[in-house]
Amino acid sequence: MHTLNRFSRSLPDLIHTVGHLRSEDIGFRTLHENLDTTTPGGRLILHVFTAFSQSLRELIVEGSCQGLAGARARGPAVGRPPVMTPEKVVAAAAAPPQPDLGDRPPDRRFRRNDLRTPGRGSHSSRAGGRGST
Q: What highest taxon heads this organism's lineage (predicted)?
């Protein structure tokens, strides 16, 4: 394993997984931390590192929750602002339906050039300067 924190999400899960590997006579070794669970010292360091990592993770979660609570207390807007305003939602609901693309093969329903700004894509040399599909 390259790093210890990529192997498991929590301390109990990591201890369980490494214990299961050990019961199958499989050693666990990390390349970054240079931990080897085939030795008693390696198992001790593994437990110390995982306990430390779990503690840091819990501190980060606690700090994030406190930051969100403080932001909520300062005002109603927490997080990314919504893209769709009520006016845009009404306009989208009133818009005519999109044209049926069922006559095109599934792999050709959308092309990269369909998403480009008119007059700037590879279709700009065609009649009218706009991409026609």
A: Bacteria
pTM of the model: 0.46
**Secondary structure of residue 49 in the 3-state scheme:** helix
What digits encode the pLDDT tens for the residues 77-121?
Answer: 777 888 888 898 898 888 887 766 666 666 655 555 555 555 554
What is the CB neighbour count within 10 angstroms for residue 78? Answer: 13
Between CA 2 and CA 29 the distance in angstroms is 8
- Residues 125 and 121: their CA atoms lie apart, in Å, by 9
**Per residue in 12-41, pLDDT tens?**
788 888 888 888 888 888 877 788 888 888
Asked if residues 38 and 27 have their Cβ atoms less than 8 Å apart, the reply is yes
Which region, left, alpha or beta, applies to residue 34 given φ > 0 means left and ψ of -120 to 50 means alpha? left
Domain residue ranges in the chain: 4-74
Task: Give the three-class secondary structure for 38.
Answer: coil
